[in-house]
Specification:
Layout lengths: L1 H6 L15 H9 L3 H14 L4 H31 L4 H14 L5 H35 L3 H9 L6 H7 L2 H24 L3 H14 L2 H42 L8 H10 L9 H37 L3 H23 L16 H21 L1 H15 L8 H4 L4 H26 L10 H53 L1 E2 L6 E2 L2 H29 L4 H4 L2 H57 L3 H21 L3 H42 L3 H15 L8 H17 L11 H23 L3 H21 L4 H14 L1 H18 L4 H14 L6 H12 L8 H20 L5 H14 L4 H14 L9 H15 L3 H12 L2 H4 L2 H13 L1
Antiparallel strand pairs: 1-2
Helix pairs in contact: 2-3, 2-4, 3-4, 4-5, 5-6, 6-7, 6-13, 7-9, 7-13, 9-11, 10-11, 10-13, 11-12, 11-13, 11-14, 12-13, 13-14, 13-15, 14-15, 16-18, 18-19, 19-20, 19-22, 20-22, 22-23, 22-24, 23-24, 23-36, 24-25, 24-35, 25-26, 27-28, 27-29, 28-29, 29-30, 29-31, 30-31, 31-32, 33-34, 33-35, ...
Length: 979
């Protein structure tokens, strides 16, 4: 047992020259189950980092635990081999678990595991293969096709892991894709069971019932289902053939590849065994189902066609033409679907060894022969059907509505019937006689010869009675059609005129003018009038040639008079259309002139941009927009609007981008300068520099620069805290206050001299007078630093001992109250600090207070530094990937990184690169529609309609691009200030 266990203990290997070291690498190796390499790496790590023994020891324990688990499972496997030699599934499960514990066992262990696994797999998989095939075949025999497909799918796991480990990754990827396809296809096959059998049954029932309408309706569904079925089935075949072909290629490349591997199992579970002699595999499940369905459908179609044929032919022989034609027509319609059904089988793809290939061409030939016979039968009743059609037209033409096509295309069924009724009846009589003669050789048709002859005589008798009524109705019908032409022409004229006079937009108060389109419409109208007028005159001439007896009829003459009145109406509209064209041409000219000037301004903007004259470029860009909008006001043009929007927006973006590069650099310089001034104590100058940076940034960006804003907040806090500490020269009381300070300083110097001379009483009186002077100043400027510091010096000079106690108490008071009494505490602390900067703890307290007030930026702690670095790296990844949609995320990360570590030069430099790459947020020029809406808002504001103007600006602000327009932002501020 000890010898066998030694096989399971991996041999130690020599460490390689991997430059990656440390516990991170150890953790990765453990995760990858590469324990040998992990132990070597731990040894190296412990020799280089003896202080971190615990960290290395914990990882070594993890490795030992995994090795113990591996050896324990190995013992269990040996017991199974000894006690349960035929339990192959249990062997495989245990080997799989061992493989999950150890990636690289020693060679002896590995060979032992591989041999055991191969033997178990061969026996187990062969048995499971036969079991699955037997159960799948049984399901097919029972008509449980989807259950069969699912059963065959269970075998795709056999030898799969071994195939993945030993095969080319690209082939593994393709195989996995095919397996995924088959899983989806089986799911699709399952879904098809909800509809395909029902479609087969519905069509079969409809054919059996001889209901042609229902047959055609059901066949549409069946054809769609069959197509869906064939697509799914062909894809299953394609994936199975891929497995088969891939295995053939592998065998050619490596003759050691055997049938006991994944691909042979996979294609047989998909396609079935070529030696099976019946439908088998997932493909066989599908083929068995549609073959069974087709057997039923062919039998039903054949039976129904035979029944309808007998019924129709019997009806014809008995003289019931309507019933006979109905039966034969039903047969014809069913035959069409049956033929289509057979033809649809061409959708199924096969290989030469695919079981169950169906010869559908033989059935199609039988249907074709049936069609020939059916055509002969249909010809027997055609003449009567023709008669019924003519009779229907004669009876129904008065009810058919008038149509413009009667005049324009001479395409009216009514007019055609009117003009050809007599001729058709004469022709029909001759055709019936011809048909009787042609059919004389057909015994079954002989009883109908006399009947056809009677029908022709009846037609002849109808002609004379109908002639006069046909002429009268013809004239009236064509006059009614002519009115429709005049009405339509009037509507077209009004539409063309509306294009010229303007069409209000549905979503705004703007009006679009289409003079060019109106010219096209007016010209088309004139062309149509010319054609219609000629058609009407031709009809009038034709009607005037009627026989004198018909022409004398008052009703007939009234119809012609109406046609002549319509010609006069068309002539008037022709003149009006010419006048409209003249007006439209003038408007088109104005639109073209404005468009040409816009092109000039656009070129000038481009030239200015090349010179980096950004303001001139923006001005000309806006002029180009104004002129394009002027052109669009004269002539609405969707293409021009879209093209100008794109061109102007692109140029505007380019202007902003190029200027933004300068802006980013200049603002960075200003930020650096402002920070230096602030750190040097020149807060006022720093404020001016940052205000300049803010103004410069706004040229190409709508949103403020957070870094500049942050510094302005710091400066404003500092200024607010130091307000009143000094007296500006511009202050009205500056001369008086300066005089008081000078007097107090002189008195302090005099008192100090007296004190040194031993004249304490006189000195105290002099110093008290100095304090009185200072109190006068402090009434106006209570926080003045000169007065406060001089007062402290006076108190110190008068009573040094008491002052020492006072100084300490004052410091303690400030320390306790600076968070509530911010300004006074801070002012007093600065005075004390100026008097004695060496006092223990005072400098630390000054820093503490200034950090709390936001005047001083606290030194970043290690966590902040680490977080700053982490955020910078994250932003760098976004920038390196050039994921522009995430640039704002990168900027937010960099802003946070700079706040956490103001000295993070990497973040600062990267921020400038990202902002440069972003190109600036400001929109230089609006789209045509938004510019029009903006001008409308300005006009409404000027008229005092502030609510309307605000609503329009609100609509503009919904557009992210328009929202970044400075002039829209300015207009919004103007409106908001007045609401």
């Amino acid at each position: 047992m000890i010898c066998i266990l030694s096989l399971l203990i991996p041999a130690q290997v020599v460490a390689g020259g991997n430059p990656e070291v440390g516990l991170p690498k150890v953790d990765r190796l453990i995760k990858e189950k590469n324990y040998n390499q992990a132990i070597l790496e731990l040894a190296t790590y412990m020799s280089e980092n003896p202080d971190d023994f615990d960290g290395a020891q914990r990882r070594l324990k993890r490795i030992i635990d995994m090795r113990v688990a591996y050896n324990n499972k190995a013992l269990e496997l040996l017991l199974v081999l000894a006690n349960e030699p035929t339990n192959d599934q249990k062997k495989l499960d245990m080997i799989t678990y061992m493989e999950s514990l150890e990636k690289n066992p020693n060679a002896a262990t590995s060979n032992f595991i591989l041999d055991t696994k191969a033997a178990a797999q061969f026996t187990y998989y062969r048995a499971k293969f036969d079991e699955i095939m037997q159960q799948g075949d049984s399901f097919i025999d029972q008509g449980k096709y989807i259950e069969a497909a699912r059963k065959f799918s269970e075998g795709f796991v056999f030898y799969k892991q071994e195939f993945d480990d030993a095969s080319d990754p690209s082939l593994v990827s393709q195989v996995n894709s095919s397996l995924g396809n088959l899983t989806n296809l089986v799911a699709t096959y399952s879904e098809i069971q909800n509809t395909f059998p029902a479609a087969v049954s519905a069509y079969n029932d409809a054919v059996s019932a001889g209901n042609a309408v229902l047959v055609e309706s059901c066949y549409v569904t069946l054809a769609a289902e069959l197509q869906r079925f064939s697509i799914m089935r062909n894809q299953i075949a394609t994936n199975g053939w891929f497995f088969s072909d891939s295995f053939a290629v592998l065998q050619k490349q490596n003759n050691l590849v055997t049938e006991n591997s994944f691909l042979p199992f996979a294609f047989r579970f998909t396609l079935g065994r070529t030696t099976a002699g019946h439908f088998e595999g997932i493909l066989g499940s599908c083929d068995a189902q549609w073959n069974a369905a087709l057997d039923i459908l062919e039998k039903t179609v054949n039976a129904s066609l035979g029944s309808l044929w007998t019924s129709g032919f019997t009806s014809l022989k008995n003289g019931d033409v309507v019933s006979g034609m109905a039966s034969l027509d039903t047969a014809r319609r069913i035959l069409v679907t049956g033929t289509d059904l057979e033809s649809s089988l061409s959708q199924f793809t096969f290989r030469s060894d695919t079981f169950g290939r169906r010869d559908y061409s033989a059935v199609a030939t039988r249907f074709s022969h049936t069609g020939d016979l059916l055509a002969i039968s249909l010809s027997l009743g055609k003449q009567y059907a023709d008669y019924l059609t003519i009779e229907k037209n004669i009876v129904g033409y008065v009810e058919e509505p008038a149509s413009r096509d009667v005049i324009r295309k001479n395409a009216s069924n009514v007019v055609s019937t009117y003009n050809t009724t007599i001729a058709d009846l004469d022709l029909l009589s001759g055709n019936i006689k011809t048909q009787i003669t042609s059919a004389a050789s057909i015994t079954e048709l002989s009883p109908y010869t006399g009947e056809f002859r009677d029908w022709s005589l009846k037609f002849d008798s109808m002609v004379s009675a109908e002639k006069l009524s046909v002429y009268i109705k013809l004239a009236g019908y064509q006059a009614d059609s002519s009115v429709l032409i005049v009405d339509e022409t009037t509507a077209l004229y009004n539409k063309a005129l509306s294009l010229l006079d303007g069409i209000p937009r549905t979503d705004s108060t703007l009006v679009d003018y289409f003079p060019s389109e109106s010219i096209v419409a007016f010209n088309a109208l004139k062309t149509g009038i010319s054609s219609d007028r000629a058609s009407l005159l031709s009809i009038i001439a034709t009607l005037s040639k009627a026989p004198a007896s018909i022409g004398a009829d008052k009703a007939y003459a009234a119809g012609i008079a109406r046609l002549r009145s319509d010609v006069a109406s068309l002539d008037r509209m022709n003149t009006d259309a010419s006048n409209g064209i003249a007006r439209a041409n003038a408007r088109v000219l104005q639109a073209n002139l404005a468009k040409q000037e816009s092109n000039l301004r656009y070129s000038q903007a481009q030239a200015a941009l090349k010179k980096n004259d950004f303001q001139t470029a923006r001005d000309n860009l806006q002029r180009a927009r104004d002129k394009i909008n002027q052109s669009l006001e004269y002539q609405a043009d969707l293409t021009l609007r879209a093209k100008s929007d794109t061109n102007l927006e692109n140029l505007g973006t380019e202007i902003t981008r190029i200027e933004n590069e300068q802006v980013v650099k200049e603002v960075r310089t200003l930020i650096s300068s402002g920070k230096n001034l602030y750190y040097l104590g020149n807060v006022d100058q720093a404020e001016q520099v940052f205000l300049q940076a803010k103004t410069r940034w706004a040229v190409t960006n709508i949103e403020g620069n957070p870094e500049v804003t942050n510094w302005l907040d710091i400066i404003n806090t500092a200024l607010s805290m130091k307000t009143g500490r000094t007296i500006p020269v511009s202050a009205p009381l500056y001369p008086q206050m300066s005089q008081i300070l000078n007097t107090a300083n002189q008195l302090f110097n005099d008192g100090k001299a007296q004190m040194l001379a031993g004249k304490r009483t006189a000195a105290i009186a002099t110093l008290t007078e100095a304090k009185t002077q200072l109190q006068q100043l402090q009434l106006v400027y209570p926080l003045n630093q000169d007065a406060g510091q001089l007062t402290l010096k006076i108190n110190q000079l008068i009573d040094p001992f008491s002052f020492t106690t006072f100084f300490k108490q004052k410091i303690d008071t400030i320390r306790a109250s600076y968070k509530t009494d911010k300004q006074n505490s801070y002012s007093d602390l600065l005075d004390l600090y100026q008097l004695n900067p060496a006092y223990p703890g005072i400098k630390k307290l000054v820093d503490e207070v200034e950090i709390y007030l936001g005047i001083q930026i606290p030194p970043p702690d290690p966590k902040s530094l680490a977080r700053s670095t982490e955020l910078t790296k994250s932003a760098q990844k976004i920038y390196d990937a050039n994921t522009r949609s995430q640039f704002q995320v990168a900027l937010d990360q960099l802003e946070e990184a700079i706040k956490l570590n103001p000295n993070n030069q990497t973040a600062i430099a990267l921020k400038d690169r990202v902002q440069t790459a972003s190109g600036g947020q400001s929109v230089a020029v609006l789209s045509a529609d938004d510019e029009s809406k903006y001008q409308q808002a300005v006009a409404e504001l000027q008229k005092g309609n502030k609510i309307t103007a605000s609503a329009l600006v609100g609509q503009l602000m919904l557009n992210p691009k328009s929202k970044n327009s400075s002039k829209i932002q300015d207009l919004k501020k103007r409106i908001d200030s007045q609401l």
